[in-house]
Amino acid sequence: MITSSILGLLLKEKPRVVKLEAPEEGLSRQEKEKRQNLEKIKSYLQGKSKVNNDEIQQMLGVSDATTERYLDELEAGGAVKQVGKTGRHVYYAIFK
Fold this sequence. Notes:
Elements: H1 4-10, H2 29-45, E1 50-51, H3 53-60, H4 64-76, E2 80-83, E3 91-94
Antiparallel strand pairs: 1-3, 2-3
Helix pairs in contact: 3-4
């Protein structure tokens, strides 16, 4: 039996984008935390030309997978572009 998470990986599921302009009322604690973390990442990116997963992971104190989801969401929104496919040489170029 294929679980939904595996199916999502197989189908290259797009990350769910949280609209940062939406009011916070009615959001779950998790959604509020995600919104705050995305704002922290955007602030961190100011003045930088590139960033890697490890920098964001250490800054936020979250897992590698969570950091990757955040960066994927920022990429889907056009804020960053992933350079490289896998491994330690992957970084994200910042668009101003």
